[in-house]
Structures are given as C-alpha cells and as structure tokens.
Q: What sequence folds into this?
C-alpha cells in the first residue's frame, strides 16, 4: 500500500505528494503541501487537506507537488 497527501475540493481529489510506504511520511508533509497548494491556488483555502491510502501498488499515481516539495519517488 502507498500513502499520499491529498486535497479534496468539492468532487475533485488531488494527490499532492507521494507515494510513501509509511503513513507517517505523508502525515509529516500535510502542512507543507497545503502551504504550497495555497500559493498556487488561493481558492483551495476552502478545500480539505489530509492523507489517503492507495491499495494497488501497480497503478499508484505520483504526487502533483512532489518536485516542488523535494519528494523523490522510487519505483
């Protein structure tokens, strides 16, 4: 399983950072990812930020803000 920092705005879900093998790694980046997302789009002030789990390792997405947050994804 993989863990992500996620953002939910209405019906839209974004995977901001990840995947991470440990939940704590995603938890540790929630504030930084939220701050960066708000710099990009101030309207995300009304969104929900947190973490989520992805069960299917083979189809896991890559976090949209990984590069901006300095997150390296290993295959």
A:
């Amino acid at each position: 399983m993989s863990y992500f920092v996620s953002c939910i705005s209405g019906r839209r879900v974004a995977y901001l950072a990840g995947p991470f093998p440990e939940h704590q790694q995603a938890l540790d980046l929630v504030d930084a990812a939220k701050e960066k997302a708000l710099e990009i789009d101030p309207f995300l002030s009304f969104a929900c930020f947190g973490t989520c789990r992805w069960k299917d390792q083979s189809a896991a997405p890559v976090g949209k803000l990984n590069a901006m947050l300095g997150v390296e994804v290993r295959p």
